[in-house]
Every structure is written in C-alpha cells, then in structure tokens.
Amino acid sequence: MKKMVATTIIATSLLVTGITAQAAPPQKDLDAYLTSVNMTQQELDKYLMDYMGWSIDEFESISELKFISVYFVSHDRRIR
Asked: Residue 30 pLDDT more than 90?
C-alpha cells in the first residue's frame, strides 16, 4: 500500500512539473539533508534504490528528494 501511494505521488509530481532530465541535487544541499536524516550518501542511495528503484542522481533538487523520500525515511523504524 505504501509503495502504491508513493508511486501515485511521484507520478503526479513528475507529470505536473514536467521533469524529464536527470540531474543530481547540489552536493552542498545534499550533504545538509544527509546530516538531517543521519545517513551517508551511499546509505540513502541504497535505500532509495531498494524501496523505490531510484538513485539520488534522478532528483534535481533536495526539495524534490525530500518530497518523495521523507515519507519512507521518517516512517522506517530501522533508520531511527
């Protein structure tokens, strides 16, 4: 059920914003986000790939990454 909700949100956000190119978020912003969720870049990338089939490089900005991943990261008891 969680994957279906996330997939719907993701599909809607991609259609509405018209995002077609892949561009990694700025490293400075990514580092700040990683600190806030207490993960390394490799851990987050693996987490995104395992649960969503995506990598960090597929997001253009940290706000886009937060929008998609905040639900999974904040609701996964293994990360706390």
From this structure: yes
Report if pTM > 0.85. Answer: no
Q: What is the pLDDT of residues 34-72, one digit of tens each?
A: 998 899 999 989 988 988 888 999 989 999 888 876 666
19's CB contacts (< 8 A; 6+ apart) are 13, 60, 64
Separation between Cα atoms, residue 1 and residue 41, nearest integer Å: 27
DSSP 9-76: HHHHHHHHHT--S--PPPHHHHHHHHHHTT--HHHHHHHHHHHHS--GGG-SSHHHHHHHHHHHHHH-
Reading the block at residue 55, the tokens are: 């990598």
> Counting every residue, how long is the chain?
80
